[in-house]
Amino acid sequence: MDAERIMERVRRLLAIANDPAASDNEQRIALEQAQRLMDRHAIEEWQLEEDHDAIEIIRRMIHLEANPCNWYMAELANIVALGNRCRASYGWRRAGNGRNVVCSISIYGARSDVDKTEAIWTAMETSRAAMWRERARTTPRAKANAAWRNGYYRGFQEEIARRYQILRREMESDGTGKELITVRGNQVDQWVEKHVTFSDRRPKLSKPTGSSQSAYRHGRQDGARQAIGLKETGKAADWALEK
């Protein structure tokens, strides 16, 4: 199956994962299938490559509209990028109020890995942007304010980060998967070091303040539902869900 057909199947699965009419179970199964399909295809491509050093590394920039959640969006992009053998960074600008804000995200990696990273990150962002207000609406004494949103976003991405750690261990248990993660990661790091110049003085960004612990718990729960290709059995599942 060629890369375009793979991505077409992934797009269909992600559409199901983001369909408000789909059940939690349907969304979970769809997103798990999408991530597993992408990982399996990556390993198959790696096995077929005659020269692993001939890979082209690209940079894809995603511009963000002004949004108080951009800081969290950049952090989640980095989590998903690392989980798909890529790297991510953010761009910033000075807003009219004098504050420095995140205005773009750059993803670095092999083209197929960048495509996967952007697709899965977009699906996750769509999910949590739709869900945080709904969770506030259905939770007694909750208010859909900035503190609730911040707590939800933080809990969601911390759970996703946990689950990607387990996914990495799952891939590394296979010899080919471990080689792919190690070699491709080094290639991307070397490319970024050679082609990207970061300022020595990182700006002091205006990070979101205030965070609801109740919303954080809901974010963790919804992050757990965003299955990303983990084996939901035994100790791995227990470790992923422990607080």
UniProtKB/TrEMBL annotation:
Superkingdom of the source species: Bacteria
Chain spans, region Disordered: 199-229
Location of the DUF2786 domain: 5-44
InterPro entries: DUF2786 (IPR024498)
This protein's name: DUF2786 domain-containing protein
